[in-house]
Predict the 3D structure of the following.
Amino acid sequence: MKVLLTGAAGFIGFHVAQKLLARGDEVMGLDNLNDYYDPTLKRARLSILEKHPKFRFVKMDLADRGGMKSLFAREKFPRIIHLAAQAGVRYSLENPQAYIDSNVTGTLNVLEGCRHNGAEHLVFASTSSVYGLNTNMPFSVHRGVDHPVSLYASTKRANELMAHNYAELFKLPVTGLRFFTVYGPWGRPDMALFLFTRNILEGKPIDVFNHGKHKRDFTFVDDIAEGVVRACDRVATPDAAWNSQQPDPSTSSAPYRIYNIGNNAPVDLVRYIEVLEDCLGRKAVKNLLPMQKGDVADTFADVSDLERDVGYKPATPVEVGIRRFVDWYLEYYKKEAPRPERVTNLG
């Protein structure tokens, strides 16, 4: 199978590409290699993928309407996994235009490419951030998500609605996946685990927002990648039981599905930090701060639909996942961050 994978040099995209290539798929990876975070890390991921004979790379911005149109017309991709986006809740407060350009205009270009070139199935990335002010847990795809608290979340919700438009009007099968706090090796430097690890090793304080009272459905990246590939294999179909009088937001009379993809086991942020401290053998100096604008207090994914439909079963506890991240971090940054000696007496 030939797959277009947008965001291939990104954190999740890199792991999804490896899964696809390992089973023999032909993967064209698209990425603009922007400098939202250090492009060196993106190029390092890409250098691993480019060693595989069935991987091809194209550097392109999703917002390049002409370039995207030509690419789709030339390649006629049967399957598309659309993970590229301007990520980050907090950055959306500083540079909102980047989110419209990438997440809205870019996704429109992907949808148009699929529409005009016979795509069999589009899988796209959404986010748990769409749940916004909702505190009814676990978060369910069968309930509404109309109160986002960041522009990032709003653009992702817009993607879900745009995808339904194309599923209804043009019978394009689409599946949206709401990711819940993904972590693991090759992670993004702007995310908490990366920032915490770096600062602890350098003896600097870590910023702990909401005074550490967050709960997050931390999900290991290998579990996420497996779920994405499984979702790609299951082409969305119309829901024969869908009722327009009592519409279910997660399905439709069109070939459209929305799923949560998380760990189904929220962890206190304080516990997350404790596991990291144990893996590093060092205690963190915590700078306790109030909740940041755009954040939600807790996340907890109901993944029963994805488990039922594709056999998704997250299997990595944070104790294992954080250890794998730390091992990768210490190896990748070995000149800057040699493995510290374990602290046994903190008195």
About this structure: The two ends are 58 Å apart (CA to CA). Confidence is low (pLDDT under 50) at residues 335-347. Residues 96-116 form the longest helix (21 residues).
